[in-house]
Structure formats: C-alpha cells, structure tokens
Amino acid sequence: MPYADLHVHTTRSDGSLELGDVPEAARAAGVSVVAVTDHDRLQPFSRPIVERDGLPIVHGIELRVEPAAGERVDLLGYGVEPTPDLEAECERIQRDRRERGRRIVERVEDRLGIDLDIGIEEGIGRPHVARAIDDHPESGYDYEGAFDDLIGDDGPCFVGRSVPSFETGWRLLAAACEIVSLAHPLRYGDPEAALKLTADLDAVEYEYPYGREVDPAPVEQAIERHDLLVTGGSDAHDDRLGRAGLDEDEFRALGLA
Predict the structure, then answer these.
(1) What residue ranges of the chain have pLDDT lower than 70?
(2) What pTM, to 2 d.p., does this model score?
C-alpha cells in the first residue's frame, strides 16, 4: 500500500468523492498523504499543504496543455500557492468548461430525445455527462457506452475545449507550485514526444495504474536524462484511493512535507 497518493480527484472536477470525505477514503485505503489534483481548478486551501482530520492534503492541480506539436498532455502541480495569473487562467478555463458542457449536453439530449437533468456547474467534465447518461433509464447507454458511442473524442456529441499552450501552462504552474510533473506519460499516443517535455519540468508521474502491461524504460530514461523527481498516484475519480502512489522515502524526496 503506498504511503502517498498524489493524484486524486473530487467533485470539484470530475470525481465522485467530496473534498470533505478525502480523509475517510484515505484511512480506508491505508494512505497517509493525499494530493487533491482536480482538473483546472484550485482548492479552497490557505497553504500548500493543509491538514484535514489528521490527514495531510497537498494542494495540487491537473492542467491540460497543448504543446507546439503533438497531442495535448496533462501537467500536475503540487504545493500550490495561487498567483493572480493562475487564478485568472483557471477562471477562464472554467468558463470554457461550462460552455463546452452545455453544448455536449444539448447534443446528447437532441440525439437521444431525453432530458439529462444535469446542472452546468464549475468543474463539469465529460464524466459528469456520462454518469447522467448512465443514470437515465431511457438513454440506452451505460457509462462506458456513453464515451464509446456519444461523447468520446470521435463521438457525434463531442465538443472540444480551449486549453493553454504547454509554455503558458508550464509558466503558470512553475510560478505557483513547488513541483510541476508530467502526468501518466505512458497513456499518450506518443509517449516519447510527451516525455521530451519533461526537460522543462521538475518531475514525472512514474507510479500509475495503467490497467495494462507497460514498459517503464522510457520513463526511467527520462528520469535519468533530466534528473527528474518521481511522483505517483491512483488518478482516483471515486473513493478507491491507494491503487498507486509513492512510498514514504519517495514522498519525502519531493520536499513537500
């Protein structure tokens, strides 16, 4: 069981776990430290690390960015002390997320002839829409089917969203966070291209539950080449924390505590 799970989402983005329930979920998983890394959204924390019900919680964020060439990637920022520039960019992204969510919902409702009865709120993402589709008795789709046939990247109800460039996102996070890490490098279609970006970063997410066999060698090579720190976490979107993460020595090496 890992000591630290540094990739956890809550209902403040597309997770199902309430922020206030994170300590209980961590205790149930045997995890001693958690980083809350909601998509494109800051937490209501006064410090880079806060304690809630005896659990240290690292103020984190996951920010999607677009390199000059290649596919979009996700950056993880840890030990956030918000700057006005980062706050402004998160507010812009949230406005875009709400408009995108509204358009996706409208497309799904028009296509299926149903009312999803979903609120368009801050933090909305496609998982919220997929859950609403799954919950609707007349949709004909479960959660996975909603992505596969409706709202996935190639689906008829898909709507893209605006994200910052890699350079902008990296600059904003570097000014506000103690550590900036590349998330789940082996999830991308071109891991080699994604890992090249770590030349500008502090760390890379090494421990991650890919759900399939992966070759960690490219990540290990990037760690050695760029002298990177190692982060890791479960990418939990529910209350099942601790499926991946760092041991205590690895966490202490980050210098966040």
Answers:
(1) none
(2) 0.89
